[in-house]
Amino acid sequence: MRTFEDSTRVSERHVTGRNGLNLAAKARVGDELRQASDATIEECVRHADAVVLRGLVYQLTGDEKLADIHVEQVAFGYSFQDRIASEDDLRLVRDKATALLRHLRDSGATEVDIGPLERLPRSLELIANAAIPQSEMEMWLEETGLDPLARGLRWKGQPTPAQKEAFQVVVIGSGISGVNAAVHLKAAGIPFVVIEKNSGVGGVWFENRYPGIRVDSPSRGYLHLFGLEYPQPYSFCPGAENVRYLEWVIDKYDLRSHFIFDTEVSDMRWDEDSATWQIAARGKDAPLTLHGNAVFTCVGFLSRPRKAQIAGLDTFRGTVTHTAEWPADLDLSGKRVAIIGTGASGYQTLPVIAKLAAHTTLFQRQPSWCYATPGYIDPLPDEVLWGERNIPFYVNFSRFRTARMYGPESSLRSQHVDPDFKDPHARSAVNKAMRDGCLAFINEVLAGHPDLIEKMTPKIPPMTSRPIRIDPKDNVYTALLRDDCDLVTDAIERVTPDGIVAGGKEIPLDVIVLATGFRANDFLWPMNIEGRDGVRPETLWAKDGPRAYIGSMMPGFPNLFMAYGPNTNGFGGLQIIDLLEMEIRFAMQCVAGMIETGHRSVEVSEEAYWRFNDELDRAEKKMIYADPRVTSYYRNEHGRSSVNGPIDIRRMWRWLRDPAGPPQAETDAGIRPWFGGDLEVA
Ligand SMILES: Cc1cc2nc3c(=O)[nH]c(=O)nc-3n(C[C@H](O)[C@H](O)[C@H](O)COP(=O)(O)OP(=O)(O)OC[C@H]3O[C@@H](n4cnc5c(N)ncnc54)[C@H](O)[C@@H]3O)c2cc1C
Predict the structure, then answer these.
(1) 3-state secondary structure 350-392
(2) CA of residue 290 to ligand 1 center, whole Å
């Protein structure tokens, strides 16, 4: 354990932050805890994450014995995990947690206070097992969700209701980003509407319903900060659980009346005179036109399926479906099924389809790297869920722990090229260790099948395509060992009315599943967007594909803010949802800045757009995913990535934080994302 010099000098500034975090939280002591037996408490504490308990109990008690504990780091999936090394230390943490819970139970208290705020940094450092620099502390404090609206809007003054009423925001899309925007816009009292082409919220999770779909980032990190208490039954939830979560959010925050479903935005045009976006949409029954002073595009980039162009596909007599368009009534029992595509969806669905169908064939051009993660598909034991409900602030500290696990330090360690590391198969020592781990797993599961081992071993290094998390016991490899499951690596020649021809042989089929991914590089597509003077995104992006200024803005497109825009697919640390939250906060602060100052528009200058993108390109050069051998959606036709975000999240957090605030003294790579800096206001 390193010293905590930084945090022992903690002042109020660290825990309230530039924008004033409200961390003075209280947690309820509910009937379930008050009526719990000693045995229940002990058992649930035993199932809880001891690293989380360590920091949490320290925060609530200040017990210094918890500081002196040895923590070690082990590989976990495609990341790393800290754990308490010795049984004695584990016992110590658990005993103290048990004592605390018994005390709360017996005290008759109905709620418990978070304890001294100035202690929080050190409590977090005990969970992080590292000192956290002062400059980062606010970002990490946000991660606890102790202030559920930490990534919401902070007004600088007190705008009148009339000032707010005069400004209308149109949000397009109701996945994670759109729902996040809705919560914060409502909390801020800014009029808004959310337009969604589907009939419900959820985004990719609404659309992708193929058998076996689930998240492969930890579910405790895949929640909004304002909704951490949602009871998720798995460590890695099935897709439908994410839809249920977003439904729960819109009910909790009473947002339903703001959503217009079954309505697809087709056109947007900036009108200079009124300084508004004129928007046309196709509704279920009639066209819709509306205007917005600002538009938040929350349309994702994985919401438009890419259909493979395979000769003869339209002649097939059976069923053809894309994984993102799964028919609710598709019964696979007794069917001969083909899966085309071996990215995340194809590998995720194979083991499940193989159990449902009579025969399954996986058509593979190239294999993907898979990371075995114990417990990936298992529901969580009741004891864990009890702890999440009843251990005060557990979900908050658990969220922080997950964020640290995927934080920039550990994340970038596995993403960066080491220029001095010479190996044709790996780009750094960590990359090689990942490769070795994956290979050992493949060799173990497929032992005795050298042909399969050969075919399932990717030729390019890990992290050059989307990493795929798998369950150690039930996965793509175990599926391929089944008698009723085949792997075909010959190129598909054509589809016939009855099957697929590959390697000169026809494979008879009833169902073809296209697991062929999305038009990931076609940002904002197929909307027809005209900015100032008729400029279009396609023109701006003609040189080398979609780009944005800090993932959010484009020159020529005032008051248009993107979430999950170009180069924001999270490679710089934390989870995707974190960056989406930061981007929505940026957009909100821009809107608030306009409302408060009376400006009608804000826009990034073209010079700043390119200055930021030069920095982005420099950062991309360090990334393993920029390997010239990459052929996935990580690389566009110009040889760069339009989707992945290589920049350390701590820098993005700073840049996206307070655009309408005072200019910041510190500029990073010359990026000045504030009004009057890189952002021109009129
Ligand atoms: C199969 C799959 C698995 C994934 N797994 C993970 C994972 O494990 N972890 C992770 O972090 N990320 C994962 N992702 C990435 C995922 O896209 C993001 O995590 C996140 O869901 C993005 O949310 P979003 O709201 O920004 O976009 P989306 O979820 O894509 O939502 C966009 C919404 O906009 C709507 N829309 C689009 N165009 C229009 C229009 N013109 N008019 C009206 N509405 C429109 C769409 O219908 C959709 O509802 C996965 C993606 C897919 C496809």
Answers:
(1) HHHHHHHECEEEEECCCCCCEEECCCCCCECCHHHHHHHHHCC
(2) 24
Q: How far apart are CA 299 and CA 307, in angstroms?
A: 19
How is residue 237 written in tokens? Answer: 């939830």
23: its two tokens: 């961390």
Ligand 1 within 6 A of 575 CB? yes
- Ligand 1 nearest-atom number relative to CA 301: 30
> How does pLDDT run across 223-267, given as a tens digit for each residue?
999 999 999 999 999 999 999 999 999 999 999 999 999 999 999
Please name every residue paired with 603 in a beta bridge, in sequence order, or none if there are none.
Answer: 680
For the chain, give every domain's residue range.
Answer: 13-150, 167-234+241-302+523-538+555-610+628-681
Q: Report whether 605 contacts 682 (CB < 8 A).
A: no
Rounded Cα distance between 137 and 131, Å, is: 10
167-234+241-302+523-538+555-610+628-681: CATH superfamily: FAD/NAD(P)-binding domain (3.50.50.60)
160-174, 357-371, 611-625, 662-676: which has the minimum mean pLDDT? 662-676
Q: Which of 177, 179, 204 to mutate to test the pocket of ligand 1 (most atoms within 8 A of CB)?
A: 204
> What pLDDT band is residue 563 in, cutting at 50, 70 and 90?
very high
Among protein residues, the one whose CA lies closest to atom 16 of ligand 1: 204
Structure tokens at 523: 């940002």
Q: Ligand 1 test: best mutation among 299, 402, 406, most atoms within 8 Å of CB?
A: 299
- Ligand 1 atom closest to the Cα of residue 195 is 43
Q: What percent of the chain shows pLDDT beyond 70?
A: 96
Contact between 487 and 449 under an 8 Å Cβ cutoff? The reply is: no
φ, ψ dihedrals at 119, nearest 5°: -85, -20
pLDDT tens for residues 493-513? 999 999 999 999 999 999 999
Minimum-distance ligand 1 atom for the alpha carbon of 179: 25
pLDDT in tens, 580-603: 999 999 999 999 999 999 999 999
CB of 241 sitting under 6 A from ligand 1: no
